[in-house]
Amino acid sequence: MMSSMDGAVTAAPLRTGFRWLQLAMGIVCMAMIANLQYGWTLFVDPIDAKYHWGRAAIQLAFTIFVVTETWLVPIEAWFVDKYGPRIVIMFGGVMIALSWVLNSYADSLPLLYTAAVVGGMGAGAVYGTCVGNALKWFPDRRGLAAGATAAGFGAGAALTVVPIASMIVTSGYQHAFLTFGIGQGVIVFVLAFFIQPPRISIPPKKKQLNLPQTKIDFTPPQVLRAPIFWVMYLVFVMVASGGLMTAAQIAPIAHDFKIADTPVSLAGFQMAALTFAISLDRIFDGFGRPFFGFVSDTIGREHTMFIAFGTAALMLLTLSAYGHVPIVFVLATAVYFGVFGEIYSLFPATCGDTFGSKYATTNNGMLYTAKGTASLLVPLASVISTAYGWKAVFVVAVALNATAALMALFVIKPLRRSFILGKEAESANTATASAKTETA
Protein backbone atom coordinates (compact mmCIF):
# COMPACT_ATOMS: atom_id res chain seq x y z
CA MET A 1 0.00 0.00 0.00
CA MET A 2 1.12 3.51 -0.66
CA SER A 3 0.26 6.76 1.03
CA SER A 4 -1.65 8.94 -1.39
CA MET A 5 0.74 11.78 -0.59
CA ASP A 6 3.99 9.87 -1.03
CA GLY A 7 5.86 11.19 -4.03
CA ALA A 8 2.82 13.18 -5.17
CA VAL A 9 3.26 16.40 -7.08
CA THR A 10 2.10 19.38 -5.07
CA ALA A 11 -1.43 20.15 -6.18
CA ALA A 12 -1.67 23.24 -8.34
CA PRO A 13 -4.87 25.33 -8.42
CA LEU A 14 -7.51 23.38 -10.34
CA ARG A 15 -8.89 24.66 -13.60
CA THR A 16 -12.40 23.93 -12.38
CA GLY A 17 -14.00 24.42 -15.77
CA PHE A 18 -11.58 22.00 -17.42
CA ARG A 19 -12.32 19.11 -15.09
CA TRP A 20 -16.07 19.68 -15.56
CA LEU A 21 -15.46 19.63 -19.32
CA GLN A 22 -13.68 16.29 -18.93
CA LEU A 23 -16.67 15.02 -16.96
CA ALA A 24 -19.10 16.24 -19.65
CA MET A 25 -17.20 14.48 -22.45
CA GLY A 26 -17.15 11.28 -20.42
CA ILE A 27 -20.92 11.54 -19.96
CA VAL A 28 -21.47 11.90 -23.71
CA CYS A 29 -19.27 8.87 -24.42
CA MET A 30 -21.27 6.87 -21.90
CA ALA A 31 -24.53 7.95 -23.55
CA MET A 32 -23.24 6.58 -26.85
CA ILE A 33 -22.81 3.06 -25.44
CA ALA A 34 -26.12 3.03 -23.52
CA ASN A 35 -28.16 1.49 -26.32
CA LEU A 36 -25.93 -1.57 -26.41
CA GLN A 37 -27.54 -2.55 -23.11
CA TYR A 38 -30.74 -0.59 -22.66
CA GLY A 39 -31.87 -0.52 -26.30
CA TRP A 40 -31.33 -4.27 -26.69
CA THR A 41 -34.80 -5.21 -25.42
CA LEU A 42 -36.36 -3.50 -28.47
CA PHE A 43 -34.59 -5.92 -30.81
CA VAL A 44 -35.33 -9.23 -29.06
CA ASP A 45 -38.82 -9.90 -30.41
CA PRO A 46 -38.11 -8.59 -33.96
CA ILE A 47 -35.07 -10.89 -34.19
CA ASP A 48 -37.13 -13.80 -32.89
CA ALA A 49 -39.93 -13.02 -35.35
CA LYS A 50 -37.47 -13.18 -38.25
CA TYR A 51 -35.38 -16.21 -37.29
CA HIS A 52 -37.44 -18.01 -34.58
CA TRP A 53 -34.38 -18.72 -32.44
CA GLY A 54 -36.32 -18.30 -29.19
CA ARG A 55 -36.04 -15.58 -26.58
CA ALA A 56 -33.68 -17.56 -24.33
CA ALA A 57 -31.19 -18.13 -27.17
CA ILE A 58 -31.35 -14.49 -28.24
CA GLN A 59 -31.01 -13.22 -24.66
CA LEU A 60 -27.85 -15.27 -24.31
CA ALA A 61 -26.27 -12.64 -26.55
CA PHE A 62 -27.17 -10.03 -23.92
CA THR A 63 -25.48 -12.11 -21.23
CA ILE A 64 -22.38 -12.56 -23.38
CA PHE A 65 -22.28 -8.81 -23.97
CA VAL A 66 -22.49 -7.94 -20.28
CA VAL A 67 -19.96 -10.59 -19.24
CA THR A 68 -17.49 -9.40 -21.86
CA GLU A 69 -18.16 -5.74 -21.04
CA THR A 70 -17.47 -6.19 -17.34
CA TRP A 71 -14.89 -8.95 -16.99
CA LEU A 72 -12.46 -7.32 -19.43
CA VAL A 73 -12.61 -3.92 -17.71
CA PRO A 74 -9.64 -4.65 -15.37
CA ILE A 75 -7.49 -5.46 -18.42
CA GLU A 76 -8.67 -2.35 -20.25
CA ALA A 77 -8.03 -0.33 -17.07
CA TRP A 78 -4.44 -1.55 -17.08
CA PHE A 79 -4.06 -0.11 -20.59
CA VAL A 80 -5.57 3.16 -19.33
CA ASP A 81 -3.03 3.36 -16.49
CA LYS A 82 -0.18 2.60 -18.90
CA TYR A 83 -1.16 4.47 -22.07
CA GLY A 84 -3.84 6.94 -20.95
CA PRO A 85 -7.61 7.05 -21.62
CA ARG A 86 -7.51 8.37 -25.21
CA ILE A 87 -6.36 5.24 -27.03
CA VAL A 88 -8.66 2.97 -24.99
CA ILE A 89 -11.75 5.07 -25.71
CA MET A 90 -10.86 5.27 -29.41
CA PHE A 91 -10.67 1.48 -29.43
CA GLY A 92 -14.06 1.37 -27.72
CA GLY A 93 -15.64 3.62 -30.36
CA VAL A 94 -14.48 1.35 -33.18
CA MET A 95 -15.70 -1.79 -31.42
CA ILE A 96 -19.19 -0.54 -30.54
CA ALA A 97 -19.75 0.53 -34.14
CA LEU A 98 -18.50 -2.81 -35.45
CA SER A 99 -20.74 -4.68 -33.00
CA TRP A 100 -24.02 -3.21 -34.25
CA VAL A 101 -22.90 -3.47 -37.86
CA LEU A 102 -22.41 -7.19 -37.25
CA ASN A 103 -25.82 -7.37 -35.55
CA SER A 104 -27.41 -5.87 -38.65
CA TYR A 105 -26.03 -8.74 -40.76
CA ALA A 106 -26.32 -11.55 -38.17
CA ASP A 107 -28.26 -14.43 -39.72
CA SER A 108 -27.06 -17.04 -37.24
CA LEU A 109 -26.71 -17.28 -33.48
CA PRO A 110 -22.89 -17.64 -33.60
CA LEU A 111 -22.64 -14.35 -35.49
CA LEU A 112 -25.05 -12.69 -33.04
CA TYR A 113 -22.90 -13.93 -30.14
CA THR A 114 -19.71 -12.73 -31.87
CA ALA A 115 -21.23 -9.26 -32.19
CA ALA A 116 -22.05 -9.38 -28.47
CA VAL A 117 -18.40 -10.10 -27.63
CA VAL A 118 -17.20 -7.25 -29.85
CA GLY A 119 -19.76 -4.85 -28.34
CA GLY A 120 -18.85 -5.92 -24.83
CA MET A 121 -15.19 -5.18 -25.43
CA GLY A 122 -16.03 -1.74 -26.78
CA ALA A 123 -18.56 -0.80 -24.11
CA GLY A 124 -16.26 -1.97 -21.32
CA ALA A 125 -13.38 0.08 -22.69
CA VAL A 126 -15.51 3.23 -22.69
CA TYR A 127 -17.35 2.57 -19.42
CA GLY A 128 -14.39 1.63 -17.26
CA THR A 129 -12.23 4.44 -18.60
CA CYS A 130 -14.81 7.21 -18.21
CA VAL A 131 -15.84 6.23 -14.67
CA GLY A 132 -12.22 5.79 -13.57
CA ASN A 133 -11.27 9.15 -15.06
CA ALA A 134 -14.16 10.82 -13.21
CA LEU A 135 -13.02 9.35 -9.89
CA LYS A 136 -9.52 10.75 -10.47
CA TRP A 137 -10.73 14.22 -11.41
CA PHE A 138 -13.21 14.48 -8.52
CA PRO A 139 -11.88 12.85 -5.31
CA ASP A 140 -13.74 15.61 -3.47
CA ARG A 141 -17.10 14.71 -5.09
CA ARG A 142 -16.76 11.06 -5.98
CA GLY A 143 -20.44 10.21 -5.61
CA LEU A 144 -21.62 13.05 -7.81
CA ALA A 145 -18.91 12.55 -10.46
CA ALA A 146 -19.38 8.79 -10.72
CA GLY A 147 -23.15 9.26 -10.70
CA ALA A 148 -23.12 11.90 -13.42
CA THR A 149 -20.84 9.74 -15.59
CA ALA A 150 -22.96 6.65 -15.02
CA ALA A 151 -26.04 8.76 -15.78
CA GLY A 152 -24.85 9.00 -19.37
CA PHE A 153 -25.05 5.22 -19.56
CA GLY A 154 -28.38 5.12 -17.75
CA ALA A 155 -30.14 7.95 -19.59
CA GLY A 156 -28.29 7.83 -22.89
CA ALA A 157 -30.92 5.56 -24.39
CA ALA A 158 -33.81 7.82 -23.33
CA LEU A 159 -33.47 10.16 -26.30
CA THR A 160 -33.11 7.34 -28.81
CA VAL A 161 -35.69 4.78 -27.64
CA VAL A 162 -38.49 6.30 -29.70
CA PRO A 163 -36.36 6.83 -32.86
CA ILE A 164 -35.00 3.29 -32.67
CA ALA A 165 -38.45 1.78 -32.06
CA SER A 166 -39.83 3.84 -34.97
CA MET A 167 -36.98 2.83 -37.29
CA ILE A 168 -37.47 -0.84 -36.42
CA VAL A 169 -41.13 -0.56 -37.43
CA THR A 170 -40.57 1.45 -40.60
CA SER A 171 -37.20 0.19 -41.88
CA GLY A 172 -36.53 -3.03 -39.99
CA TYR A 173 -34.30 -3.80 -37.02
CA GLN A 174 -31.26 -4.43 -39.24
CA HIS A 175 -31.32 -0.86 -40.54
CA ALA A 176 -31.69 0.45 -36.97
CA PHE A 177 -28.65 -1.56 -35.87
CA LEU A 178 -26.56 -0.26 -38.77
CA THR A 179 -27.54 3.41 -38.55
CA PHE A 180 -27.29 3.89 -34.81
CA GLY A 181 -24.22 1.67 -34.50
CA ILE A 182 -22.14 3.75 -36.88
CA GLY A 183 -23.37 7.04 -35.43
CA GLN A 184 -22.61 6.09 -31.83
CA GLY A 185 -19.15 4.76 -32.69
CA VAL A 186 -18.10 7.87 -34.62
CA ILE A 187 -19.07 10.23 -31.77
CA VAL A 188 -17.08 8.22 -29.20
CA PHE A 189 -14.05 8.02 -31.50
CA VAL A 190 -13.98 11.80 -32.03
CA LEU A 191 -14.43 12.67 -28.35
CA ALA A 192 -11.59 10.32 -27.40
CA PHE A 193 -9.08 12.82 -28.80
CA PHE A 194 -9.98 15.34 -26.09
CA ILE A 195 -10.20 13.14 -22.97
CA GLN A 196 -7.22 13.14 -20.59
CA PRO A 197 -6.43 12.32 -16.94
CA PRO A 198 -5.41 14.91 -14.30
CA ARG A 199 -1.68 15.68 -14.38
CA ILE A 200 -1.50 16.90 -10.78
CA SER A 201 -2.43 15.53 -7.39
CA ILE A 202 -5.94 16.60 -6.41
CA PRO A 203 -6.51 16.73 -2.63
CA PRO A 204 -9.30 14.51 -1.30
CA LYS A 205 -12.32 15.84 0.49
CA LYS A 206 -11.89 16.66 4.17
CA LYS A 207 -12.76 13.60 6.21
CA GLN A 208 -16.31 13.36 7.56
CA LEU A 209 -17.57 10.90 10.15
CA ASN A 210 -20.32 9.65 7.83
CA LEU A 211 -18.05 9.54 4.77
CA PRO A 212 -14.75 7.83 5.67
CA GLN A 213 -12.04 8.03 2.99
CA THR A 214 -8.71 6.28 3.14
CA LYS A 215 -5.41 8.14 3.04
CA ILE A 216 -3.80 5.08 1.51
CA ASP A 217 -3.70 3.97 -2.13
CA PHE A 218 -4.13 0.20 -2.26
CA THR A 219 -2.80 -1.75 -5.23
CA PRO A 220 -5.15 -4.18 -7.05
CA PRO A 221 -3.55 -7.30 -5.47
CA GLN A 222 -4.02 -5.78 -2.00
CA VAL A 223 -7.65 -4.98 -2.82
CA LEU A 224 -8.33 -8.56 -3.89
CA ARG A 225 -7.04 -9.79 -0.52
CA ALA A 226 -9.39 -7.49 1.43
CA PRO A 227 -12.61 -9.16 2.72
CA ILE A 228 -14.55 -5.89 2.39
CA PHE A 229 -13.99 -5.99 -1.39
CA TRP A 230 -15.71 -9.36 -1.69
CA VAL A 231 -18.61 -8.31 0.54
CA MET A 232 -19.16 -5.29 -1.71
CA TYR A 233 -18.85 -7.58 -4.72
CA LEU A 234 -21.56 -9.91 -3.38
CA VAL A 235 -24.00 -7.08 -2.70
CA PHE A 236 -23.30 -5.63 -6.16
CA VAL A 237 -24.20 -9.00 -7.73
CA MET A 238 -27.38 -9.32 -5.69
CA VAL A 239 -28.70 -5.92 -6.76
CA ALA A 240 -27.43 -5.92 -10.34
CA SER A 241 -29.02 -9.27 -11.21
CA GLY A 242 -32.55 -7.92 -10.78
CA GLY A 243 -31.86 -4.74 -12.75
CA LEU A 244 -30.19 -6.53 -15.64
CA MET A 245 -33.03 -9.04 -15.81
CA THR A 246 -35.62 -6.26 -15.91
CA ALA A 247 -33.69 -4.22 -18.49
CA ALA A 248 -33.24 -7.22 -20.78
CA GLN A 249 -36.72 -8.67 -20.33
CA ILE A 250 -38.94 -5.60 -20.01
CA ALA A 251 -40.31 -5.96 -23.56
CA PRO A 252 -41.07 -9.70 -23.22
CA ILE A 253 -42.61 -9.03 -19.79
CA ALA A 254 -44.88 -6.32 -21.22
CA HIS A 255 -45.92 -8.59 -24.08
CA ASP A 256 -46.64 -11.50 -21.73
CA PHE A 257 -48.69 -9.16 -19.52
CA LYS A 258 -50.53 -8.17 -22.74
CA ILE A 259 -50.02 -4.45 -22.12
CA ALA A 260 -47.12 -3.64 -24.47
CA ASP A 261 -49.27 -1.73 -26.97
CA THR A 262 -51.87 -0.42 -24.51
CA PRO A 263 -51.99 3.41 -24.62
CA VAL A 264 -50.98 5.11 -21.36
CA SER A 265 -51.62 8.81 -20.66
CA LEU A 266 -49.41 10.57 -18.13
CA ALA A 267 -48.55 14.25 -17.61
CA GLY A 268 -50.02 15.21 -20.97
CA PHE A 269 -48.17 12.50 -22.90
CA GLN A 270 -49.66 9.38 -24.41
CA MET A 271 -47.64 6.41 -25.64
CA ALA A 272 -47.83 2.65 -25.80
CA ALA A 273 -47.10 1.23 -22.34
CA LEU A 274 -43.83 -0.46 -23.36
CA THR A 275 -42.40 2.55 -25.20
CA PHE A 276 -43.52 4.86 -22.38
CA ALA A 277 -41.97 2.57 -19.76
CA ILE A 278 -38.60 2.29 -21.51
CA SER A 279 -38.41 6.05 -22.13
CA LEU A 280 -39.36 6.92 -18.55
CA ASP A 281 -37.05 4.21 -17.18
CA ARG A 282 -34.06 5.77 -18.92
CA ILE A 283 -34.94 9.27 -17.65
CA PHE A 284 -35.39 8.10 -14.05
CA ASP A 285 -32.28 5.93 -14.27
CA GLY A 286 -30.23 8.82 -15.59
CA PHE A 287 -31.51 11.23 -12.94
CA GLY A 288 -31.13 8.72 -10.11
CA ARG A 289 -27.43 8.07 -10.61
CA PRO A 290 -26.10 11.60 -9.96
CA PHE A 291 -28.87 12.30 -7.44
CA PHE A 292 -28.03 9.33 -5.24
CA GLY A 293 -24.33 9.99 -5.76
CA PHE A 294 -24.86 13.52 -4.44
CA VAL A 295 -26.96 12.21 -1.55
CA SER A 296 -24.27 9.68 -0.65
CA ASP A 297 -21.68 12.47 -0.55
CA THR A 298 -23.86 14.01 2.17
CA ILE A 299 -25.37 11.20 4.27
CA GLY A 300 -22.90 8.40 3.51
CA ARG A 301 -22.69 5.55 1.00
CA GLU A 302 -24.27 2.78 3.05
CA HIS A 303 -27.29 4.78 4.22
CA THR A 304 -27.98 5.72 0.61
CA MET A 305 -27.66 2.07 -0.43
CA PHE A 306 -30.18 1.05 2.22
CA ILE A 307 -32.74 3.58 0.97
CA ALA A 308 -32.24 2.68 -2.70
CA PHE A 309 -32.16 -1.10 -2.33
CA GLY A 310 -35.20 -1.05 -0.05
CA THR A 311 -37.17 1.06 -2.53
CA ALA A 312 -36.14 -1.28 -5.35
CA ALA A 313 -37.51 -4.27 -3.43
CA LEU A 314 -40.81 -2.43 -2.91
CA MET A 315 -41.16 -1.59 -6.61
CA LEU A 316 -40.41 -5.15 -7.69
CA LEU A 317 -43.03 -6.38 -5.24
CA THR A 318 -45.49 -3.92 -6.79
CA LEU A 319 -44.70 -5.23 -10.29
CA SER A 320 -45.22 -8.76 -9.07
CA ALA A 321 -48.72 -7.97 -7.79
CA TYR A 322 -49.96 -5.23 -10.15
CA GLY A 323 -47.61 -5.22 -13.13
CA HIS A 324 -50.44 -6.22 -15.47
CA VAL A 325 -51.99 -2.75 -14.97
CA PRO A 326 -50.42 -0.49 -17.67
CA ILE A 327 -50.03 2.69 -15.59
CA VAL A 328 -48.61 0.72 -12.65
CA PHE A 329 -46.19 -1.04 -14.98
CA VAL A 330 -44.94 2.29 -16.37
CA LEU A 331 -44.58 4.04 -12.99
CA ALA A 332 -43.22 1.10 -11.00
CA THR A 333 -40.51 0.31 -13.54
CA ALA A 334 -39.59 4.01 -13.71
CA VAL A 335 -39.13 4.29 -9.94
CA TYR A 336 -37.32 0.95 -9.87
CA PHE A 337 -34.74 2.03 -12.42
CA GLY A 338 -34.46 5.38 -10.66
CA VAL A 339 -33.12 3.60 -7.59
CA PHE A 340 -31.41 0.69 -9.36
CA GLY A 341 -28.97 2.78 -11.38
CA GLU A 342 -27.36 4.20 -8.26
CA ILE A 343 -25.23 1.07 -7.89
CA TYR A 344 -23.17 2.44 -10.77
CA SER A 345 -22.45 5.63 -8.83
CA LEU A 346 -22.33 4.37 -5.24
CA PHE A 347 -20.07 1.36 -5.73
CA PRO A 348 -17.37 3.25 -7.71
CA ALA A 349 -17.47 6.06 -5.12
CA THR A 350 -17.33 3.56 -2.25
CA CYS A 351 -14.46 1.76 -3.95
CA GLY A 352 -12.51 5.01 -4.32
CA ASP A 353 -13.22 5.98 -0.71
CA THR A 354 -12.08 2.59 0.55
CA PHE A 355 -9.05 1.89 -1.62
CA GLY A 356 -7.78 5.32 -2.77
CA SER A 357 -7.48 7.29 -6.02
CA LYS A 358 -4.18 6.20 -7.58
CA TYR A 359 -5.43 2.82 -8.78
CA ALA A 360 -9.11 3.82 -8.88
CA THR A 361 -9.62 2.82 -12.52
CA THR A 362 -8.30 -0.72 -12.06
CA ASN A 363 -9.80 -1.28 -8.60
CA ASN A 364 -13.23 -0.10 -9.70
CA GLY A 365 -12.85 -2.20 -12.84
CA MET A 366 -12.39 -5.31 -10.72
CA LEU A 367 -15.50 -4.46 -8.69
CA TYR A 368 -17.45 -3.73 -11.87
CA THR A 369 -17.00 -7.36 -12.98
CA ALA A 370 -19.77 -8.11 -10.48
CA LYS A 371 -22.16 -6.84 -13.14
CA GLY A 372 -20.88 -9.58 -15.46
CA THR A 373 -21.36 -12.19 -12.77
CA ALA A 374 -24.92 -10.94 -12.22
CA SER A 375 -25.65 -11.14 -15.95
CA LEU A 376 -25.23 -14.91 -15.80
CA LEU A 377 -28.56 -14.99 -13.96
CA VAL A 378 -30.45 -13.18 -16.76
CA PRO A 379 -31.13 -16.30 -18.89
CA LEU A 380 -32.42 -18.01 -15.75
CA ALA A 381 -35.20 -15.42 -15.63
CA SER A 382 -36.53 -16.73 -18.95
CA VAL A 383 -36.38 -20.31 -17.67
CA ILE A 384 -38.10 -19.48 -14.37
CA SER A 385 -40.76 -17.36 -16.07
CA THR A 386 -41.56 -20.19 -18.47
CA ALA A 387 -42.00 -22.65 -15.62
CA TYR A 388 -43.54 -20.47 -12.91
CA GLY A 389 -44.39 -17.10 -14.46
CA TRP A 390 -42.88 -13.63 -14.06
CA LYS A 391 -44.23 -13.31 -10.52
CA ALA A 392 -41.72 -15.93 -9.35
CA VAL A 393 -38.88 -14.01 -11.01
CA PHE A 394 -39.93 -10.79 -9.27
CA VAL A 395 -40.18 -12.49 -5.88
CA VAL A 396 -36.59 -13.74 -6.16
CA ALA A 397 -35.43 -10.24 -7.12
CA VAL A 398 -37.33 -8.74 -4.15
CA ALA A 399 -35.56 -11.10 -1.74
CA LEU A 400 -32.13 -10.24 -3.18
CA ASN A 401 -32.70 -6.47 -2.95
CA ALA A 402 -34.12 -6.60 0.58
CA THR A 403 -31.16 -8.68 1.77
CA ALA A 404 -28.72 -6.31 0.06
CA ALA A 405 -30.30 -3.32 1.81
CA LEU A 406 -29.76 -4.91 5.22
CA MET A 407 -26.21 -5.97 4.35
CA ALA A 408 -25.29 -2.42 3.28
CA LEU A 409 -26.21 -1.02 6.69
CA PHE A 410 -25.23 -3.85 9.01
CA VAL A 411 -22.29 -5.50 7.22
CA ILE A 412 -20.63 -3.15 4.71
CA LYS A 413 -20.78 -0.04 6.92
CA PRO A 414 -18.96 -1.42 10.00
CA LEU A 415 -16.60 -3.62 7.99
CA ARG A 416 -15.52 -0.79 5.71
CA ARG A 417 -14.86 1.62 8.58
CA SER A 418 -12.90 -1.02 10.42
CA PHE A 419 -10.80 -1.67 7.31
CA ILE A 420 -9.99 2.02 6.70
CA LEU A 421 -9.16 2.85 10.31
CA GLY A 422 -7.22 -0.36 10.84
CA LYS A 423 -5.04 0.09 7.76
CA GLU A 424 -4.35 3.74 8.56
CA ALA A 425 -3.36 2.83 12.12
CA GLU A 426 -1.15 0.04 10.78
CA SER A 427 0.50 2.43 8.33
CA ALA A 428 1.06 5.02 11.07
CA ASN A 429 2.63 2.42 13.39
CA THR A 430 4.92 1.25 10.60
CA ALA A 431 5.99 4.82 9.88
CA THR A 432 6.65 5.45 13.60
CA ALA A 433 8.68 2.27 13.95
CA SER A 434 10.69 3.15 10.86
CA ALA A 435 11.40 6.64 12.22
CA LYS A 436 12.61 5.20 15.55
CA THR A 437 14.87 2.76 13.74
CA GLU A 438 16.42 5.56 11.69
CA THR A 439 16.90 7.67 14.82
CA ALA A 440 18.57 4.80 16.65
Automatic annotation (TrEMBL):
A single Gene Ontology molecular function, please?
oxalate transmembrane transporter activity
The family database entries (PROSITE patterns) matched by this protein are listed as: MFS
Q: Which UniProt keywords apply?
A: Membrane, Transmembrane, Transmembrane helix
Xref: CDD domains: MFS_OFA_like (cd17353)
Q: Which is one Gene Ontology cellular component term of this protein?
A: membrane
Is Ribosomal protein given among the entry's keywords? no
Where do transmembrane segments lie in this chain? 20-40, 60-80, 87-106, 112-132, 144-169, 175-195, 228-251, 263-284, 305-322, 328-347, 368-388, 394-412
Q: Which residues form the Major facilitator superfamily (MFS) profile domain?
A: 1-416
Superkingdom assignment:
Bacteria
Is Flavoprotein given among the entry's keywords?
A: no
Q: Which InterPro entries match?
A: MFS, MFS_dom, MFS_trans_sf, Oxa/Form_antiport, Proton-linked_MCT
Query: Gene3D superfamilies, from UniProt?
Result: MFS general substrate transporter like domains
Protein name as annotated: Oxalate/formate MFS antiporter
Q: Which gene encodes it?
A: oxlT
